[in-house]
């Protein structure tokens, strides 16, 4: 009970403003003695905020846990929290999973994102595999409730990231991909009609599925394994929602890039029946390829609608399908290059491009920071940074400084609350309010 009470006291910083008065008297000794000089202050602030945010995940009030998860997400996005993870890895994972089991849709989304960031922080190894194994059944259970598409999308992204980092073999990756496939293609039984998922959920599931497919190295290339997925993605190219079309187009480009559809499966077997089945599957896929090509050609030149948002999405669609058209007609995969800290990050295959786009989306504003310092991502993209950012705020990029200093920053808001509380406590101590307690502590 003592530990739980301490955790609740440490979480007071994350309570709503209505609770500020009652929470001030329950501040921690760690906060009382916090350093307030230079870079040590910034680093100590972050460590203290993360400790308090972790403690706040034990709170009964859902809004408090949501605020705590937001602080954790921003801290893990904007810097690599290796020291915190080394000390609190198991506790953080356990509490985030608890939030998924009992939380609101918003809390589940936040907890899912935090778990994904935790996996990217620890990189490949036993901890990443533990994240996957501990999270899989809880995520699978949470996916069965389709009440909020944003929640399901976050769970799918989390499952993709933790499998990408922590999966040890093809079977584990296939297991996660099958879970994703069931979200967009639910099979509830012969006499049960499954509800159609919304477009945003379809786009998220297809993107997550494709992200994991990039790791499968040909996925035991046999045309018979591809027929269902190619037919499904081809049908999605007819959907009105452009995000769905884009996700389906990327998936199809990846499949045809990875698949060897010029070799008849079963020819090496002694079974004539297997060879015949292989020929039938190959012929069917070649027919599907023609249909895909026709659709891709149309989408690469589609006329647009009104509005800047629609125009941006239309341009994204056109650019993508022009790349896919060039790939289908000439065999050329799109090449991309972006500067990170003076060095170029290059992609030259569909797999690399899909991985890059997915992780940029997942990390958001923290992508550059992670590409500078995250050794796991260095290995994924074969990227060697020119220099690594130091932990000092003065060495952050201008964009990261704006993120840290922004009055809308979750981390900055919590930091401001913490520093204000410390100033108040310091004033009380100077007035003798804490003199007796301080004397007892010194004794």
Automatic annotation (TrEMBL):
Family annotation (InterPro entries): ARM-like, ARM-type_fold, IFRD, Interferon-rel_develop_reg_C, Interferon-rel_develop_reg_N
Q: Which domain of life is it from?
A: Eukaryota
| Pfam families cross-referenced by the UniProt entry | IFRD, IFRD_C
Q: Which residues form the Interferon-related developmental regulator C-terminal domain?
A: 374-426
Low complexity bias: start-end ranges? 22-37
Task: From the UniProt entry, list the residue stretches annotated as the region Disordered.
Answer: 1-45
Gene3D superfamilies in the cross-refs: Leucine-rich Repeat Variant
Interferon-related developmental regulator N-terminal domain location, by residue? 25-329
* Similarity remark: Belongs to the IFRD family.
Q: What is this protein called?
A: Interferon-related developmental regulator, N-terminal
Q: Please name the source species.
A: Dillenia turbinata
């Amino acid at each position: 009970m003592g530990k739980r009470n301490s955790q609740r006291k440490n979480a007071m910083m994350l309570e709503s403003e209505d609770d500020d008065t009652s929470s001030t008297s329950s501040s921690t000794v760690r906060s009382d003695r916090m350093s307030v000089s230079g870079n040590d202050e910034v680093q100590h602030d972050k460590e203290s905020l993360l400790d308090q945010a972790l403690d706040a995940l034990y709170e009964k009030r859902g809004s408090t846990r949501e605020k705590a998860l937001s602080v954790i997400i921003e801290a893990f996005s904007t810097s690599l929290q290796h020291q915190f993870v080394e000390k609190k890895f198991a506790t953080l994972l356990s509490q985030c999973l608890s939030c998924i089991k009992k939380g609101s849709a918003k809390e589940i989304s936040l907890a899912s994102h935090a778990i994904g960031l935790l996996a990217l922080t620890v990189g490949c190894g036993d901890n990443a595999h533990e994240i996957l194994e501990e999270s899989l059944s809880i995520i699978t259970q949470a996916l069965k409730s389709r009440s909020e598409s944003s929640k399901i999308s976050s769970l799918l992204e989390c499952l993709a990231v933790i499998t990408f980092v922590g999966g040890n073999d093809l079977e584990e990756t296939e297991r996660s991909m099958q879970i994703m496939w069931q979200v967009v293609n639910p099979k509830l039984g012969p006499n049960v009609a499954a509800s159609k998922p919304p477009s945003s959920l379809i786009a998220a599931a297809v993107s997550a599925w494709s992200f994991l497919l990039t790791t499968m190295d040909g996925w035991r290339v046999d045309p018979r394994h591809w027929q269902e997925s190619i037919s499904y993605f081809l049908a999605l190219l007819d959907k009105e929602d452009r995000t769905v079309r884009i996700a389906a187009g990327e998936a199809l480009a990846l499949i045809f890039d990875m698949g060897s559809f010029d070799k008849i499966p079963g020819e090496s077997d002694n079974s004539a029946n297997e060879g015949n089945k292989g020929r039938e599957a190959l012929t069917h896929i070649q027919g599907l390829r023609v249909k895909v090509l026709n659709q891709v050609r149309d989408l690469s030149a589609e006329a647009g609608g009104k509005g800047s948002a629609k125009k941006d999405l239309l341009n994204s669609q056109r650019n993508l399908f022009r790349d896919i058209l060039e790939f289908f007609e000439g065999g050329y995969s799109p090449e991309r290059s972006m500067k990170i800290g003076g060095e170029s990050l290059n992609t030259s295959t569909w797999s690399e491009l899909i991985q890059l786009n997915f992780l940029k989306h997942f990390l958001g504003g923290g992508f550059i920071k992670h590409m500078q310092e995250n050794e796991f991502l260095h290995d994924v993209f074969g990227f060697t940074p020119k220099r690594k950012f130091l932990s000092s705020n003065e060495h952050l990029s201008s964009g990261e400084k704006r993120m840290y200093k922004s009055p809308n920053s979750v981390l900055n808001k919590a930091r401001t609350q913490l520093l204000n509380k410390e100033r108040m406590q310091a004033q009380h101590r100077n007035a003798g309010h804490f003199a007796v307690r301080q004397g007892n502590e010194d004794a």
